[in-house]
Amino acid sequence: AQAGEWSNQLLEEVQTIWGLGVSRSTDQVTARFDQGEAAIEFGGARAERLLRLGARAVNDVSGMAAIHVTQQYSAGALAAQKFTNIAYGGRGLSKKRLASLGLSEADGVRISRAIRKHATVEKGGLGYRLIATNVNDWLDTEAASMFIVAIDRWAHKTVQNVDIGNMAQWMTADLGKVIFQYRSFVATAWEKQLMHRVDMHDWQAFCELTWGMLVAGIVYMG
Question: Which tens digits make up the pLDDT trace of 22-39?
């Protein structure tokens, strides 16, 4: 921590290569905002800044900032581990799953070959544990690029995050913003989580849905 580096090589890669887990550091409150996206154009620069500071404080005090960062790190690391499991004989992803990551079956084979050749792994009782992908050293640079994009898509689809790119264009217009001002998270979840899993309709999608409902039910009862 003093050196600003992870002792875990895989998490270090997740942060430096995929930029996951750094949302709190990059989401800073500044004194300037883009036109059309803040109250500054109506003369409310000070009020806007105070509102943003308040939102950041609530995010920290509630613990959601730490939870979100942890989820991002975990999603990236587990996605990379999944590809490693596949490379060493584990059950592969379906064509639909690969397509959702921007990959074909041939692309998956190339990534598995590169992982076996360049990744640092540790043999354990349950298979091979990924220590580091070493993706910067891959000789097949095209496979490395596809792998980086696939992990990025997987992690950002797994961890819920409201992004303007996840919404329909009409939702970003003035009327759409008024209608969805408290529903943007739900609308994004509908598309990224529910509809995506319905489209996959496989065992993994079933487990994700049931596990999510189980945890939510336990938290609600608690």
Answer: 888 877 776 555 555 555
